Amino acid sequence: MRFLFTLTACISLMAAAETRADSRVFIIANQPDGYGVDECLAKGEKCGAPVARAYCQSRDFAQATGYRRIDPDEVTGAIPASTGTTGSHGEFVAITCHR
Question: pLDDT of 4-19, one tens digit each?
Answer without folding.
Answer: 556 566 666 666 555 5
